[in-house]
Amino acid sequence: MATAVAPGQGGIAVIRLSGPAAEVAGRAVVHCPGCQEWGSHRVLYGHVLDAAGQQRLDEVLLLLMRAPRSFTGEDVVELHCHGGLIAVQRVLQRVLDQPGVRRALPGEFSQRAVLNGRMDLTRAEAVSELVAARSHRAADLALAGLDGGIQVRITALRERLLDQLTELEARVDFEDDLPSLDAEALLAELQRVRKDLLQLVQDGKRGDAVRTGLRVALVGRPNVGKSSLLNRLSRRERAIVTDLPGTTRDLLESEIVLEGVPITLLDTAGIRSTDDAVEQLGIARSEEALSSADVVVLIADGHAGWTAEDQALLDRIPAAVPRLVVANKSDLPPGAVPVPAEVHLSALEGLGEEDLVEALLRRCGAGEAAGLLVALNQRQRDLADRAAEALARSQEVAAQQLPWDFWTIDLREAIRALGEITGEELTEAVLDRVFSRFCIGK
Fold first, then answer.
1. What pLDDT sits at residue 7?
2. Lower CB density within 10 Å: C or N end of the chain?
3. Is pTM beyond 0.90 here?
4. SS3 state of residue 83
5. How far is CA 162 from CA 81, 150, 153, in A?
6. DSSP sequence for 3-24
7. Long-range contacts of range 434-437, CB-CB < 8 Å, 24 or more positions apart?
8. If you compute the radius of gyration of the chain from its CA atoms, what whole number of angstroms results?
9. Which residues of 99-196 form beta strands (DSSP E)?
10. Alpha-helix runs per DSSP H in 235-377
11. 301 vs 254, 268, 329, 356, CA distance in Å?
12. How far apart are CA 115 and CA 205, in angstroms?
């Protein structure tokens, strides 16, 4: 890879300028020898010179893209300079010294692309999600949004509502001159759209597991095999494994990907009574992890059998948090009291690992995300929910047999909410909320 994946490291770095002063600034900063043509969508070779035009600061390639054929729809210049802290900062400072040039705000390039009609809002959000993707599946969902999958679905639903609004408004103004409107058929169509919206909302919630990942807490009595399981799933030694109880003294984290879903495994300290001050701190953090996890995996020693301590741990898991009981050490004879487990495994030998992964993803709803084609993010889901609620109110309007203009109130609200998803109903507050989460330069 040529571009940086860590601060200050990378073969090249790209400095991007957008706006009416971009080409002028590029010409002022870069000296291109010979008779190179400053044409749109051409690459020029040159050097960045200091303000006096005497000292070479870096050797660069300059890419010029004139409006409207650019990412933002404006004149865009990209300077491809050498990577590293010093080279990039020297070139960047020369650019910022030019008249009319300033640093971009977070997401400002994508924001300008939306304002200039180069992309809709769902595609812009997909760009940010693609950059932040932590797994292949998350990248696939982001690409589906970038290809317009979300925009197509939402626009189609919005147009169906616009068709109904057109019919309603025509009856409000010219009811005596037009054939009567079938209220039952109208209500049925609005509820069909509502059903489709609610399905998109549910799909989006399942997609969150792929997009943002899950936090899975491994809990259990000391020496039941939590650390062995962590090491097994992460495929590397992250935790110390010994026969001594209470080996894990702190909260250990490991980032893995299971079936395309990013997982943060939290290996907690064994929860028990102890006088060790350090171990007590680890146990306190373990209890905090129970409430913050998306799912808790309670590991019991299948060879020792189910104990009162295991039951006490199970009772300490918050009721709202999904849990999965696992019996470890299945390679040894079972204890006198069977563990009420859904999965039996041997973390030492790997037996039952596939069953554990399947049960874990199913318990937190991530297993259903495998077949998703598109997934709305949180902002988009909130707006789709608002539209669905507005359409639900049409049932009450129909039941009270109110005039047609009452129907249009909720219908317009639903249409506005869907337009805000794609950017057809843009406000400054919407733009600020969406693009403030973007990285600088995107």
1. 66
2. N
3. no
4. coil
5. 50, 18, 14
6. S-SBTTB-SEEEEEEESTTHHH
7. 434/107, 434/111, 434/121, 434/124, 434/125, 434/379, 435/105, 435/106, 435/107, 435/108, 435/110, 435/111, 435/124, 436/106, 436/107, 437/106, 437/107, 437/128
8. 29
9. none
10. 277-292, 308-316, 353-363
11. 22, 16, 6, 15
12. 29
Q: Tell me, what's the pLDDT at 402?
A: 77
CATH topology of domain 113-196+380-442: Four Helix Bundle (Hemerythrin (Met), subunit A) (1.20.120)
The neighbouring-strand residues paired with 254 are 265
Pair 374, 155: CB distance under 8 Å:
no
Grouping H, G, I as helix, E, B as strand and the rest as coil, residue 164 is: helix
| Domain 12-103 superfamily per CATH | Probable tRNA modification gtpase trme; domain 1 (3.30.1360.120)
Pairing state between β 76-82 and 12-18: antiparallel
Every domain of the chain with CATH number 3.40.50.300 lies at 214-293+295-363
pLDDT < 70 regions, the chain: 1-2, 5-8, 172-179, 235-251, 269-287, 289, 365-372, 426, 430, 440
What is the spatial distance between Cα 333 and Cα 195, in angstroms, rounded to a whole number?
A: 52
CA pair distance 54, 47, nearest whole angstrom = 11
Cα(145)–Cα(347) distance, integer angstroms? 39
Rounded Cα distance between 273 and 291, Å, is 20
* 317: three-class secondary structure by DSSP: coil
d(CA 339, CA 318): 20
Q: 73's torsion region: left (phi>0), alpha (psi -120 to 50) or beta?
A: left
Report d(CA 179, CA 407) in Å as an integer.
18
* Residue 239 CB partners (closer than 8 Å, separation 6+): 226, 227, 228, 230, 231, 247, 248, 252, 267
Tokens 């893209």 label which residue?
Answer: 65
Residue spans in the chain of domains classed CATH 1.20.120.430: 113-196+380-442
